[in-house]
Design a protein that fits this description.
There is one protein chain. The protein is of the alpha+beta class. It has three domains: 3-157; 160-184 and 231-331, PH-domain like; 185-230. Helix content is 51%, strand content 21%. The chain is built from eight helices and 13 strands. It has helices at 8-40, 64-88, 95-120, 131-152, 186-209, 211-229, 271-275, 315-329, and strands spanning 3-4, 48-53, 56-61, 156-157, 178-183, 233-239, 242-247, 253-257, 261-269, 279-282, 288-291, 295-302, 307-311. The strands form four sheets. It has a five-stranded mixed sheet. A four-stranded antiparallel sheet has the order 5-6-7-8. It has a two-stranded parallel sheet with strand order 1-4. The two termini are 37 Å apart. The mean pLDDT is 86. This is DUF1648 domain-containing protein. It comes from Microbacterium aerolatum. Residues 29-71 form the DUF1648 domain. The chain crosses the membrane at residues 17-41, 65-87, 99-121, 133-152, 189-208, 214-234. Keywords: Membrane, Transmembrane, Transmembrane helix.
Length: 331
């Protein structure tokens, strides 16, 4: 069980361990992989296999590409996974932060093994046929180091605050409704823009190096931008029918009937600590949410035990209206 952080020292200890596991160690691993690749480069042919398909090698390029891939991918992924946490989590901490630190370490090992291993199996007269073993070692290393990274970090969480499950006292025949908006906070917008700019830069670079793979990545980048655009602002409606949440683009949308709800509460939400970021997210503890900023949120628990969270102002009033609707449908 995670221990609740009651002192700033607990959070500082967690941040320090997260920094070492999630950023310092991955940078050292990436640097070691780059050194190995540079040492092995003279033993490679002028053109090496850069990509393996179902039928064997299907993409070729300069050996120097492996250096750039390791530098760019090996550094950008841990930076994207750790910098938002370090920048926003100064007074709170959560299990998701610990998970991201462990994942950053594990993924860095996978990238390093894949890059350096791809070079190793093509040295001298080798034909690069051992890529399957390289990937197997890489994924095994990701799992092992991910678990190690998890246990190297302290079990620290800040306690979640929530209001009581209140309801409204309505006169016979009266009905209540509540309308609100969930909009992405400034911090979330900044990090999403940075992530998109990095993705665009990588896409342009890959296009210049390999047009075939570049166009595939360009399509993926366009889809990512489209998905982000649909999750910046949501409309919320609470009424006797239950809870409805939908993007201003029309999709995605959720509808939870009052008959399926156990209770609603106003809670304090920290997207990074609890959900690992901003947007439509799933928490490690099983909750699902539209978490666009730090602060108030409406948390709805269903009869099945599933929990839905949406960040919004005046969440206490929304919870009271929804609890009143739930009370009205109970036998």
């Amino acid at each position: 069980m995670n221990t609740h952080a009651r002192r700033p020292d607990d959070i500082r200890r967690a941040r320090r361990a997260f920094l070492l596991v999630g950023l310092v160690a991955p940078i050292a691993i990436a640097a070691a992989a780059v050194v190995l690749i540079l040492i092995w480069l003279p033993g490679l042919p002028d053109q090496v296999v850069m990509h393996w398909g179902a039928n064997g090698p299907d993409g070729f390029g300069s050996p120097a590409m492996f250096v750039w891939i390791q530098v760019i991918v090996g550094l950008s992924i841990p930076l994207l996974m750790t910098l938002p946490v370090l920048a926003t989590m100064r007074e709170s901490w959560g299990i998701t932060c610990r998970f991201l630190g462990a994942m950053s370490l594990g993924v860095s090992v996978l990238i390093a093994v894949a890059s350096a291993g791809s070079v190793a199996i093509q040295r001298g007269d080798a034909d690069g046929s051992g890529i399957g073993a390289v990937l197997g070692i890489g994924f095994a290393g990701m799992l092992v180091f991910g678990v190690i990274g998890w246990f190297l970090q302290p079990r620290v969480t800040t306690a979640q605050t929530s209001g009581r499950a209140a309801h409204l006292d309505l006169a016979p025949g009266e009905r209540a409704a509540w309308f609100g908006t969930a909009a992405m906070g400034r911090t979330g917008v900044v990090f999403l823009v940075l992530a998109v700019l990095i993705l665009i830069a990588i896409t342009v670079w890959v296009l210049l190096m390999d047009q075939g793979a570049g166009w595939i990545l360009a399509i993926v980048t366009a889809l990512v931008i489209l998905l982000i655009a649909t999750t910046l602002v949501f409309r919320i409606r609470v009424s006797a029918d239950g809870l409805r949440v939908h993007s201003i683009a029309g999709w995605p949308r959720w509808s939870i009937p009052a008959s399926e709800i156990t209770e609603a509460r106003a809670v304090q939400v920290n997207p990074m600590a609890e959900f690992g970021g901003w947007g439509v997210r799933f928490a490690v503890d099983g909750r699902m949410g539209v978490v666009l900023r730090t602060g108030e949120g409406l948390q709805v628990t269903r009869h099945s035990g599933r929990t839905f969270v949406v960040t919004t102002d005046d969440a206490a009033t929304a919870a009271s209206v929804l609890n009143t609707a739930v009370k009205g449908v109970k036998p």
